[in-house]
Description:
Layout: H1 10-30, H2 46-49, E1 54-55, E2 58-65, H3 66-75, E3 84-94, E4 97-106, H4 109-126, H5 128-132, E5 135-139, E6 142-147, E7 155-160, E8 163-170, H6 174-183
Antiparallel strand pairs: 1-2, 2-3, 3-4, 4-8, 5-6, 6-7, 7-8
Amino acid sequence: MLELKGGAPKNLLIVVSLLLVAVAASFYLSYIEFPAATPEVEEASAAAEIAPDELLGMNKIVVSSGLDALQLVKQRHTGNIEDVKEVAIVHYMKEDGLLTLWTTLYQNETIAWDENEKMVIGMRKWGGNWSSDLKEITVAGKQVYQTSSDGVSYHYFWADGEWVFYIIPRNFSQEEVADIIGAIP
Length: 185
């Protein structure tokens, strides 16, 4: 082994040099501000406001909005949730039925459309009923995706301007589903 002046092994000098570089880098990085990994969602919720106050005689119940809603959405998805400006989860209830509506606002129409299509791609990759039951249909003049997680109950989602809407109607007729989709901006 080579030794330097004073008998210090060369390997020790390399280790000390690396430690000094690591300490300097950690001090430097502690002063840099990195963007948050989670997008900031505005608490004042246009996402809750865009949901109709009433659908088919059912009153709007805002379950969650803002950061809380974003966390709930992330818990229910396997893919990345990106570029969200605002999000809300809303319920409408009737005696024997429940409608869940997710409203998501994006920065612009292109991002909303891209995120909607990413959901389609994700469902196709996931497989099962999500993929085999996935189809694009026209409902109330809107291009809507319809899918099912269990082959029995259906989910519907679509992009409209800078918004993406996702509904799960439970115990509603096809005519009622069409009326609901038509009533959501």
